[in-house]
């Protein structure tokens, strides 16, 4: 339990807050944690209800982007006129007097936060939520395919190297960094020379629960939840379907939850699929619980909130041996970890053909995450803040 009288005053400048993605979810839970524990907390974000308001110990400054904001992704934007926000944010920081300014990415508010923390001599903390360098690499690789395999590979690798160099430079401007998995922690420590602390993700185990399952058919349901974007590697699901059919498994379907540019391709190439769109709350919890196997072929996720939500719902997961999800799934216990796309398909078929293994993994998956609360995550973050401020 954090003592309110000794808790540091935190100003969070979040580039994404109301959107549907893991970083936004984390920021919303962060604000909720501060409210529950009555901690001094300033939340600065973009939104549709601009203005300043106070709710107990929580202060909120919501800003509206200008018409010069452009779309980076389905639910991510960058405002070219973000400098308009510097003055009102500085005024709010002067009123709030934070001990730490915390930013979540090199986006418009992240850059603003870095500028103001330096100007006002406030310790700056940064948390790594997205492997932007890998996103950029895969998208450039896809765009440059027309140039041939060799040139496309060169463009992809060059883009990733350049983007990672710039990201590490930006994150090195802070006093401390937070990252969600051991691989990223080691990389950032080596590349920035800054202290890097662990910041995981929590799970609402009351909301996501096996008891939410309501199905009256005996079909095998393979599910995915998340953004339907190229970096999620969702086209491998077509190969999964082919392997299942060759294995003699016919009574199956895919349940796809989310939105994004890959949906038309998936609809054309996965005829045995059901698309729910974006879900939340009880509808999302029921969607998870109605899955038999959770498939997450992404190799770019830093954590994988959705994998943890699937495990809490009693659903074993098949993930790739890259990125954060491999640190969530316990291979052979709560799911299976594939070394490549071919093995991903084979492991999905193996789990599909073994009802007993699925049942045992479902039980273990639920047990594994029962103690992973959001309160536990942010208590660890606040402990790290204390160490940061003592060293300042």
Name some characteristics of this structure:
single chain, Rossmann fold, 19% strand, 392 residues, 8-stranded mixed beta sheet, alpha/beta, 6-stranded parallel beta sheet, globular, 13 helices, 2 domains
Could you explain the architecture of this structure?
This protein has helices at residues 22-36, 86-96, 108-120, 132-143, 149-171, 182-192, 236-246, 263-269, 281-289, 305-312, 341-352, 355-369, 374-391, and strands at 10-14, 41-46, 51-55, 58-63, 69-73, 76-79, 100-103, 124-127, 176-179, 196-198, 220-225, 252-257, 273-277, 293-296, 317-320, 335-338. With 392 residues, it is α/β, with parallel strands linked by helices. It folds into 2 domains: 4-202 and 373-391, Glycogen Phosphorylase B (Rossmann fold, 3-Layer(aba) Sandwich), CATH 3.40.50.2000; 210-369, Rossmann fold, CATH 3.40.50.2000. The strands form 3 sheets. An 8-stranded mixed beta sheet has the order 3-4-2-1-7-8-9-10, with helices on both faces. Strands 13-12-11-14-15-16 form a 6-stranded parallel beta sheet, sandwiched between helices. The chain has a two-stranded antiparallel sheet with strand order 5-6. Helix 4 runs antiparallel to helix 5 and helix 10 crosses helix 12.
Question: What is this entry, summarized?
Answer:
This protein is of the alpha/beta class and 392 residues long. The chain has helices at residues 22-36, 86-96, 108-120, 132-143, 149-171, 182-192, 236-246, 263-269, 281-289, 305-312, 341-352, 355-369, 374-391, and strands at 10-14, 41-46, 51-55, 58-63, 69-73, 76-79, 100-103, 124-127, 176-179, 196-198, 220-225, 252-257, 273-277, 293-296, 317-320, 335-338. It is built from 13 helices and 16 strands.
């Amino acid at each position: 339990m954090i003592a309110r009288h000794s808790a540091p005053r935190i100003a969070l400048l979040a580039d994404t807050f109301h959107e549907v993605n893991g970083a936004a979810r984390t920021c919303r839970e962060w604000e909720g944690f501060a409210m529950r524990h009555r901690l001094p907390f300033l939340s600065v974000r973009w939104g549709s209800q601009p203005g300043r308001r106070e709710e107990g110990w929580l202060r909120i400054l919501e800003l509206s982007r200008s018409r010069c904001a452009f779309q980076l992704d389905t639910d991510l934007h960058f405002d070219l006129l973000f400098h308009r926000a510097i003055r009102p944010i500085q005024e709010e920081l002067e009123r709030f007097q934070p001990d730490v300014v915390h930013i979540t990415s090199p986006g418009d508010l992240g850059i603003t936060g870095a500028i103001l923390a330096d100007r006002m001599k406030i310790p700056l903390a940064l948390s790594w939520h997205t492997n932007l360098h890998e996103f950029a690499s895969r998208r450039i690789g896809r765009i440059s395919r027309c140039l041939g395999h060799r040139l496309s590979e060169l463009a992809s690798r060059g883009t990733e190297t350049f983007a990672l160099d710039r990201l590490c430079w930006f994150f090195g401007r802070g006093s401390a960094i937070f990252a969600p998995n051991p691989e990223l922690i080691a990389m950032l420590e080596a590349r920035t020379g800054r202290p890097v602390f662990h910041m995981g993700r929590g799970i609402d185990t009351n909301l996501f629960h096996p008891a939410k399952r309501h199905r009256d058919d005996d079909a095998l349901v393979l599910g995915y939840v998340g953004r339907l974007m190229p970096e999620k590697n969702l086209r491998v699901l077509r190969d999964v379907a082919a392997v299942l059919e060759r294995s003699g498994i016919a009574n199956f379907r895919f349940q796809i939850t989310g939105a994004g540019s890959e949906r038309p391709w998936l609809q054309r190439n996965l005829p045995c699929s059901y698309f729910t769109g974006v879900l939340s709350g009880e509808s999302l919890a029921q969607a998870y619980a109605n899955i038999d196997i959770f498939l997450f072929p992404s190799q770019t996720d830093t954590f994988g909130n959705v994998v943890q939500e699937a495990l809490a719902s009693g659903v074993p997961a098949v993930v790739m041996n890259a990125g954060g999800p491999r640190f969530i799934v316990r291979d052979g216990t709560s799911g299976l970890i594939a070394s490549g796309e071919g093995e991903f398909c084979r492991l999905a078929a193996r789990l599909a053909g073994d009802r007993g293994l699925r049942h045992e993994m479902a039980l273990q998956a639920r047990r594994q995450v029962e103690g992973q609360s959001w309160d536990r995550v942010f208590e660890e973050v606040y402990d790290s803040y204390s160490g940061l401020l003592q060293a300042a």
